[in-house]
Design a protein that fits this description.
The structure holds two protein chains of two kinds. Chain A is mainly α. Chain A is built from 20 helices and no strands. Chain A has one domain (2-485). In chain A, 80% of the residues lie in helices and 0% in strands. Chain A is globular and about 65 Å long. Chain A starts with a helix and ends in an 11-residue tail after the last helix. The relative contact order of chain A is 0.14. By secondary structure, chain B is α+β, with helices and mostly antiparallel strands. Chain B folds into two domains: 4-117, 2-Layer Sandwich (Alpha-Beta Plaits), CATH 3.30.70.120; 124-214, Alpha-Beta Plaits. In chain B, 25% of the residues lie in helices and 36% in strands. Chain B has five helices and ten strands, in the order E-H-E-H-E-H-E-E-H-E-E-E-E-H-E. Chain B is globular, with a radius of gyration of 18 Å. Classes of the chains: A mainly alpha, B alpha+beta. At the A-B interface, helix 1, helix 2 and helix 12 of A face strand 2, helix 2, strand 3 and strand 8 of B.
Chain lengths: 496, 222
Amino acid sequence: MSVFYEKFKEVLFSVLPITIIVLILNFTLTPLELPLLIRFLIGVIFIVFGLTIFLVGVDLGITPIGNHMGGTLAKTNRIWIVAVVGLILGFFVSVAEPDLHILAAQVDAVSSGLISKGSIVVVVSIGISVLLAIGLGRIVYNFPLYRILTIIYFIIFVLACFTSREFLAISFDASGATTGALTVPFILSLAIGVSKLKKDSKASEKDSFGLVAIASTGAILAVMLMSILSKTDKITGSLETAETSDTITTAFVHEFIKIGPEIVIALLPILILFIIFQRISFKLSKREVSRIIFGILLTLIGLVIFLVGVNAGFMDVGSVVGFKIASNSNKLYVIIVGFILGVVTILAEPAVYVLTHQIEEVTSGYVKRSVVMLTLTIGVGIAVALSVIRILIPELQLWQYLLPGYLISIALSYVVPKLFVGIAFDSGGVASGPMTATFILAYTQGAAEAVEGANVLIDGFGVIAMVAMTPLIALQLLGLIFKLNSKKGGLESNGK
Amino acid sequence: MENKSGTTGIDLICIIVNFGMGSKVLKTAKSLGIHGGTLTLAKGTANHRIWDYLGLSDIRKEVLYMVAGRETAYRALDRLDEEYKFHKPNHGIAFTTSVYETVGTSGCKSEAMNSERGEDEMMYQVITIIVDKGKAEDVITAAGKAGSKGGTIMNARGSGIHETSRVFAMDIEPEKEIVLILSEQDSTEAIVSAINKDIGIDSPGKGIIYIQDVNKTYGVYK
């Protein structure tokens, strides 16, 4: 039981900050109506328990499956097997990702059906699977991460020149959205499974990261290509805003009915692939199999409880807080609160949790979880603050943030320790999970609604893109600090 | 019992604590005259059948290795025991074994002590088992059947003479797991043969076991 207890403690401390901040806001700047506040507090309880169960489940179920698959794949020593299995894995895992379906539905709506939901799901999944296969190939052939990222982002830059500004935002959002709470732990452990075979322990350490980053660029490329090829450059439709009239219980029941089946579907491909692999090559002992199945079950239960808590408890609070603060005369508050919310929200993001633990595990505690967390929170805080500024000042455009941001990120990747390049680019995709996608997005959209001249739709998209970008810079800077601080020949000497 | 290894007067201290405590213990140890230490991550288990079956009994641990002259080591350990309360359940365990020689650390000169090894009444031994990845749990189960109270698992990699290979552009080394088990001297034999029976360490390529005498222990329940 100690595993639950240990996780529970950690989760509690990462969910407490956001709870306290919202409560403080409630008593100062933005008084919330009582039912909403109660929903929020019930949501907190759901999130704490859900996240605890989910994380234990990931440790027992998802991570071992990914590790075994990665190892087994690499040991086949046949590139076509790695490529084919990589394609299949990437496709099915991302097709089943609930976040992708939400994004696709939004794009469907805003393009007035020109780009249908089904087609975007398939195209993005193909994009991710191709890039996942490339990413796996990179690890086994020791191709440096920073070079492949430079190439990919150069292609993205060229495509971006032909993409309208609305779709630019959507495509970058897609990269964040598709790497959700389930995909990230799985892809991470897949990469670790392959790279920990390596004899050179430094290479093994740094190549454990970066696969999530590469895979998530698949989504950017896919959406950009789609928008160019289908010649859709205008956003014509509009999004319906979610109704907020639900009572406390119906809100939770409603979300449960919606989310339950989604997560079952999302987990199915991983489970089926595991069973196939187990038959063909794993041949794990009965005990290990029963553990993994039990882990998947926990993952399922935990994730459903967590998401119900987030969607039913947090979403509306986010938009109400955003709206009320932005209606307030002092615009500085919107930015400051945005920053603080960014900081505390990211703490409760499930995939961030998994990533930081993996980092600690892989580096044997050299790169501490708390340090990565702290850097990440500051990065995301800045991202939200910048997004809010963009809402307040209509002249600012998303590309004016993204272009310099990515240029700096790529430039940094040539100088910082290579381990941190992988960690940083991975955390970009990781930071933009369900918590950000609901709470932060709701906050900025709420703010946009209250600000004259701001377009809820256009300014709403692009927030996730920002949250996915700032960690790249923040964590690479952390890497730079590590490099400067350690005088002894440590990690930083891997100059290649 | 007058073993040859006890004569040099240098001890290897091994402390197993819950995750996150390692750095603190090391810091305190340094203030007590020990010159440095090495930390690794590990996974601990203790007996608990159902939780164990479901994999819920694993706790993240840290293992701290330090080398010091015997007198310094014992003094430091006594103080560490006071501070970190190894004697209470779930506060970690510590033990020392004799080291034949050290290179690279000037700090620990031989400090021969008059007192003989084992001020403890009960003699302990540490059994180290190195097996292929995935087998560690079986080792601990086997040891448990023979009366062991738990064990610590560390991830490692390494290879015997025939094992290194190359796939694609990467040299790979098989993953291993190192299991540490503390046992009373009387039951060591039983534990080792139980592990041997279940895992078949005797046959080539299945792993190795070695046993060391322990000088002093803290935090092991009788």
